[in-house]
Design brief:
Strand order of the largest sheet: 3-2-1-7-19
Number of strands: 27
Oligomer: single chain
Number of helices: 12
Shape: globular
Radius of gyration: 23 Å
Helix content: 25-40%
Largest sheet: 5 strands, parallel
Amino acid sequence: MNRQPRHIVVVGHGMVGARFVEEVARRDPDGERVRLTVVGAEPGVPYNRILLPDLLNGRLEEADLALASVASTAVEARSGVSATALDTAGRSVRLDDGSTLGYDELVLATGAQAAFPPVSGLTRDDGTPAAGVTALRDLADCRRLMELTGPGSPVVVLGGGVLGLEAARALTERGVRVSLVESSPWLMRRQLDRAAARILGARFTALGVSVHSWRVAARWIPGTGLELDDGRVLPGDALVVTAGVRPRTGLAEAAGIAVDHGVVVDDLLTTSDPRVHAIGDCARHPSGGGGLVQPGWEQAAVLADLLTGTAPEARYRGTRPVTRLKAEGIELACLGEATAEENDTTHTVTICDAHAGRYVKLVVRDERVAGAILLGFPDAAATIIQLYDQGAPVPADRISLLLGRTAPEPAPDGAGPALVCRCNGVDRDRLEGAWLDGARTREAIAERTRATTGCGGCTRDVDALLAAWNQGSPAAV
């Protein structure tokens, strides 16, 4: 007698939940091993929230953000439905439409929500954003912000991290007058050193953004603007809060599952309950990695291997993420221990050209890349990221490397090909294979390999490879 497929319920149909469904369908296309039910609180199809700034600035339409859907009788997707309670003993999830889903395995992919700092006037008594205040986490936020803003209107962005800077740049492209407030001494405090942040701030000022670092928000005054701790009031028809996120852990915590700044998981992506798993921004793995899509998508692939039985040996050991700022006119990548200082074991090489708005810092330990900041050095960035991924030795002429004039030495034995699309784990060999199979455009490459469909940071590199290959051959590049 044939065994019935096991039932996996996925709570959360965002970028990571949708990727998990896709990965399972790739491994079990006929649903012989598992059947999936995925529930998502947002209406409509899952979409790429990383590209919301490109929707805000008008480069993309909402339809362009849609993620690929899985057409399978073994997959049931229910949108506009939230999970309200989890019964681990009875292996069931209660939904807000009154129904209950039983499961053999449960996957939490609930993501994170915007964190609103304790600033007077930001939220109403029920915790919802006050008039004129919005985050930028989902389509509803983006639509609200577009309704609140127009050419020439003043807007304040609260938070000088990656999302805040991308939102500020997108708004300036809409003709909005933007003030950006960051409570830390400088922008992107976790990724940049002071010198790089100073140049980045100057670049944003030149683009029309009024940058206010080392300033604390005191009060939001609807219809007026944001009052700072020094008494100044920045005019604003809207306030965009990009001051961090909080993992959505309420469902797990209420069920007695271990939570510590995220749902705690091991290398099997299993929680303290052996039938419950967590991936993406809601999960906390010992190696970290929250806040970026690459770790979540890698976790989705590992968990799909395990729950379908395709690769029982699969383990998630962590990710070496690279942070890219996606702001028109600014090329910035940060990786590893980028803010490390020179000492007995760590060596740094820095080139600073403040006049041209360019800065690069390379951190080397044991002749390998330990970290880097690359602002305005896209050619060097591609090579240094390759060295970082492969653990290859740093060339002796490090100045030439920083100027983009030195190719990396052969990778160490056992190292894989150079990654091009980090979000999707697409290396150059896969791109070359797709090209040889007839994919001659970026769209065709994306369809075959998924490259460029994540954060979009690899688009420039994919375009460069295609241009060279279409003029000659891969062997010539």
